[in-house]
Design goal:
- The protein is an alpha/beta fold.
- It has helices at about 5, 60, 70-85, 100-115, 135-140, 140-145, 190-205, 230-240, 300-305, 310-315, 315-335, 345-365, 370-375, 375-385, 390-400; strands spanning about 20, 40-45, 90, 120, 150, 160, 165-170, 185, 205-210, 245-250, 255-260, 265-270, 280-285, 290-295, 410.
- The chain has 15 helices and 15 strands.
- The chain has a seven-stranded mixed beta sheet.
- Helix 4 links the parallel strand 3 and strand 4 (about 120).
């Protein structure tokens, strides 16, 4: 089940994600790397945290109202991805919400239809393994990456696929050894497997791109428990292997962060949760010019029309979804400010800056209005009069971080 108390609107604070990486220091590369040489371009459409569930749970709908339409949103997204005919569709975990086998079977059936024309690749998230074993997960989704793997890690559900374009896709299983545990693990054996793959890529001139469910970098307001433990070890290894971009999910809100150490850098792209506003997924285009990431909006309304549906929420989905998000934001405000001594004008200003920050942050466009919001009298009221809660600290962290990059697009050179 979704961790409601921790998620709070499915923002960056969602789901306890302490990923414990047992120490394994990377060894120096024995041979110099060959220049990256691609055989062509590669297009990937990526999503994470679909959280499909056939049963409707009111406690979860109250936090993400669009959850009631999760099946329709998922079907619309997969159909849109399939119509685009990318080289791969990659889903980085939490395919289902409660982890039960029945929902896994339904998800696998949906993916199987897409896989007829577009290769689908998956890795598990912490929710996926709550009620099935790793072996059962691999059996359920064997045709979505495991059967096609160039290499599989015997110690986890990690695997790699070498594409015709000369890009080595490495999908890392960072899940806990404890069934359903949100804390993650990368064993020494998995890190050694990753290092060996990276050396093959370096010596062959392949571009190596890594994926996981859990995050590697600190994304502005991430609690310390949400950051991969011993992440520095993993970052050093990836930088040593000339990996420039890592793609993950887990936070439910799209975000991009770059870690730079000297001449080395690692950019992590966190994929958004498709069922929550703004209802998007990621598009990655790889060429010799580099990697370009953008977001695509799921056209649920168009899908509903093709299905002959009469539900007004689905037929005017953009309006429904933004209003649902606004109502959740308002519920948070009402709870946070209920005991604050404010004039009606002060409260109105504080609500305005909170709503605008929330919406622009979820869109990945907070950088465009940060200066305006910092000068907003509502922000000044939050600092002077706002209760000392996570939301006051959240506003301050987001709006004072002037180095934060856009969350909806980036270009990474190789």
């Amino acid at each position: 089940m979704l961790k409601i108390k921790i998620k709070l609107l499915g923002l960056a604070l969602c789901l306890t994600a302490c990923t414990a990486v047992r120490s394994a220091q990377p060894n120096p590369s024995p041979k110099p790397a060959l220049p990256i040489t691609l055989n062509g371009s590669l297009t990937l459409l990526c999503s994470s945290d679909l959280h499909y569930q056939s049963e409707r749970l009111q406690s979860q709908v109250s936090v993400v109202p669009q959850m009631i339409y999760n099946e329709a949103i998922t079907a619309a997204m997969l159909a849109q991805m399939q119509d685009a005919q990318p080289d791969r569709i990659i889903l980085t975990g939490d395919l289902v919400n409660q982890g039960d086998e029945q929902d896994h079977q339904k998800m696998a059936a949906m993916l199987r239809k897409v896989n007829e024309t577009v290769p689908v690749r998956v890795i598990p998230g912490n929710h996926d393994l709550a009620m099935v074993t790793r072996e059962e997960f691999a059996n359920l989704y064997h045709e979505f990456g495991y059967d096609q793997a160039y290499s599989r890690d015997p110690d986890s559900l990690s695997y790699a696929e070498l594409t015709d374009a000369g890009v080595l896709l490495v999908l890392l299983d960072t899940n806990s050894e404890r069934p359903g545990g949100s804390e993650g693990t990368l064993s020494d054996a998995t890190l050694k497997w990753l290092q060996d793959l990276g050396e093959q890529a370096r010596q062959s001139g392949w571009l190596m791109l890594t994926f996981s469910h859990h995050n590697l970098l600190d994304h502005t307001v991430t609690a310390s428990s949400d950051i991969v433990a011993a992440a520095d070890t993993v970052k050093v290894l990836l930088e040593q292997l000339n990996v420039k971009t890592h793609i993950s999910g887990h936070r439910h809100t799209g975000h991009i962060q770059t870690d730079t150490a000297g001449a080395q850098s690692l950019t992590e792209i966190v994929l958004p949760m498709p069922i929550a506003w703004p209802n998007t997924y990621g598009r990655i285009q790889i060429s010799m010019e580099g990697l370009d990431y953008t977001q695509e909006t799921i056209d649920v309304a168009a899908w509903a029309q093709t299905q002959g549906l009469a539900n007004p929420d689905l037929l005017d989905f953009p309006a429904y979804s933004v209003q649902a998000q606004r109502q959740v934001n308002q519920s948070t405000l009402d709870s946070t400010l209920k005991n604050a001594e404010l004039t009606p004008e002060q409260r109105q200003l504080m609500e305005e800056v909170f709503q605008r920050t929330m919406f622009s942050y979820r869109q990945g466009q907070l950088d465009q209005i940060r200066a305006e919001l910092l000068a907003h009298p509502g922000y000044q009221a939050w600092q002077a009069l706002g209760p000392d809660t996570i939301w006051k600290r959240w506003l301050q962290a987001l709006l004072t971080n002037e180095e934060q990059s856009p969350g909806d697009h980036i270009h990474v050179e190789y």
